[in-house]
Amino acid sequence: MNDLLLIAVYAAFGAGAAGLLGWPAVRALRRRSVALSLFAVAVVTVLAMASGTTAVAQAMFLSEHDLGVVMTVLAIGAVVSLLAAAVLGRHAVSGSRALTLAARTVGSDGGFTAPAQPLSAELAQLSAELSATSARLAESRKREQTLEASRRELIAWISHDLRTPLAGLRAMAEALEDGIVEEPNRYYGQIGAEVERLTGMVDDLFELSRLQAGALHLTPARVSCYDLVGDALAGADPLARERGVRLLGGQVDLVPIEVDSREVSRALGNLLVNAIRSTPADGVVAVTASRQADEVVLAVTDSCGGIPEADLPRVFETGWRGGSARTPRTVGDADGGEHSGGGAGLGLAIVRGIAEAHAGSAAVRNVDGGCCFEIRLPAAGLAV
Ligand SMILES: Nc1ncnc2c1ncn2[C@@H]1O[C@H](COP(=O)(O)OP(=O)(O)O)[C@@H](O)[C@H]1O
Ligand SMILES: [Mg+2]
């Protein structure tokens, strides 16, 4: 038993010396190919065994003959283990090369193509990660392309919307200049109206760009829904009278909200103008405000007969206008189609933007005989 302990001590010294010598080599190879490292580990193992055995022989525990036998066996084992290390190293290297090549396909149109050959567990994990990254990249690129396309479309639409009134203004100005106008006052009135419409459009664009850039600074204050709705109804009254539409504002709860009242009034005003324009004469437009859980819901319901189901998800899109009022058209298109409201399809995008800027939301649904636009805003504390 004592002999065995001694043999273990000698062997440990011998092998330890080989290990200490081999350690710097293994460390130095850390940044080199994994195949080289595997090979180095096999070499260090063989050397450790050889030097351990030699140490035991030096201490006379092994005869010359037995040492020869053990060394021969060790030499054969060394060949096999070095071969195994080489084969394993080759496999690891070829797997990592294949993955490097495959990594070049990350983000390409065809998406990431994983190597066909079997990979080690770590490389397979890396490959799965690359595949997920590639999918995320493709998704965000698609989003960006859609955004870019809609931006281009919007610019085309807006250019068209600006071009038509500008052409009208130019024609009127030229006619006035030439003195061929019999009723100049009518022209002045029309010019004023067109300029007002253009100003409104530019104003909407500016508001929308601030909303989308997150540059709209809100000045929240505690207000009562009653006042908000009352002001919006008063503002929309002239248009409603002109169109013969009845405005109802009876169901307004006395709930307080903490909002930028100028912005929320603007949103309500947009909804009311849309509702009045879409409602036939003698129709009704109703505004309600109610508290639902921790939200305040401002709703504008009209008698437009309902929005086609297919259009419902699109109404809040920037630049979208319903019906035949606007199909995507190019800047050069000169149909001059009269849009009933003269808006540029920005009104509802602004409504949604304002609602979201207040951590709320905007939605639409069809109801009996018409549609109902809702703005949901977080309610303020209970006391008014
Ligand atoms: N209350 C409503 N009833 C029916 N359709 C509506 C209503 N409000 C909006 N829409 C539809 O949504 C479109 C987009 O509205 P909006 O963004 O305000 O732009 P615009 O008023 O300039 O057309 C309108 O063209 C219209 O087709
Ligand atoms: Mg509108």
Structure description:
InterPro entries: BphY/WalK/GraS-like, HATPase_C_sf, HATPase_dom, His_kinase_dom, HisK_dim/P_dom, HisK_dim/P_sf, Sig_transdc_His_kin-like_C. One of its GO terms (cellular component) is plasma membrane. The chain crosses the membrane at residues 6-26, 38-61, 67-88. Keywords: Kinase, Membrane, Phosphoprotein, Transferase, Transmembrane, Transmembrane helix, Two-component regulatory system. The protein has 384 residues and is α+β, with helices and mostly antiparallel strands. Among the domains are: 2-103; 219-384, Heat Shock Protein 90, CATH 3.30.565. 59% of the residues lie in helices and 11% in strands. The chain has eight helices and seven strands, in the order αααααβαββαββαββ. It has helices at 2-28, 34-58, 64-103, 121-178, 184-212, 225-243, 261-278, 347-357, and strands at residues 221-224, 246-248, 256-259, 284-292, 295-301, 361-367, 370-378. Strand 4 and strand 5 form a beta hairpin. Helix 1 (2-28) packs antiparallel against helix 2, helix 6 (225-243) runs parallel beside helix 7 and helix 7 packs antiparallel against helix 8 (347-357). The longest helix is centred in the middle third of the chain and has 58 residues, at 121-178. Magnesium ion is lined by residues 270, 273-274, 341, 343, 347.
Salient structural properties:
EC 2.7.13.3, Heat Shock Protein 90, alpha+beta, 384 residues, phosphorelay sensor kinase activity, elongated, binds magnesium ion, two-stranded antiparallel sheet, 5-stranded mixed sheet, binds adenosine-5'-diphosphate, transferase
